[in-house]
Amino acid sequence: MFWQTSRFQIDLNTPKVMGIVNVTPDSFSDGGKYASSGSAIKHAEKLLKDGADILDIGGESSRPGAPQVPLDVELSRVLPVVIEAVKLGIPISVDTYKPQVMQAVLDAGADIINDIWALRQVGAEYVVAKHPNCGICLMHMHKEPQTMQSEPMQGDAASVILQVLLFLEHRRQYIHGIGVDLSRMAIDSGIGFGKTVEQNFALLARQRELLALGLPVLSGWSRKTSLGAVTGLPMAERMPPSIVAAVLAVQNGASIVRVHDVLETVAALKVLDSVCQLKKV
User: Fold this and answer.
1) Domain span at residue 198?
2) What is the pTM of this model?
């Protein structure tokens, strides 16, 4: 399977690691550490050295309860970083739902739009549709960041899987219908976006059911609250369970894992690949 993006056709026959570059003062995990353009670029270069296959740049925190960021502020955070990051020679993804930001970063050479709203904001779908090749990741989110965890989804594991599948299938059909080739799309079940701890783990355990949509699956478990809920570990100590979750996600069909700890995740996936190769002998 390949993922078509602006400049790259990404080979997903081996799993890819997407490194997170948060250009925000209030991200749930590393807010403020890379808030300046210079520090963000240095971090991007480090993640590339650590083995990242893709970089995901974001200028607005989507943690539960996070306030919306004005358009001009998000652009001032993200655009200078994207302009430099596209020179690094790997696919550059931008985590945004604003159509104006999408247009600006695509004009600057970005390869992928990673949208927590799955192109539901007015005009966003047409920005992507008129671009000839950019990749898009469509994510499931229940409600919105301000309310999603105070009013999470209802239902058991089977119900949640069905709800996520139906939502993503609807978005896939709609986006394809306005001219976006399926080869440009990936999907994300939205771990932590309006789900309970049990529902998040049900989505991990039954993730392969998402493959029925015929699109690559992106999984984002890194340092999430659900990992803290089952381990008792604070944010700063969640690297080990994050790596385990990334490995489990790949075992359960994910083609891309979005992570903070690139070096360690790449190493863990090499171990998994060695075992998988032996099973083929």
Assistant:
1) 2-280
2) 0.95
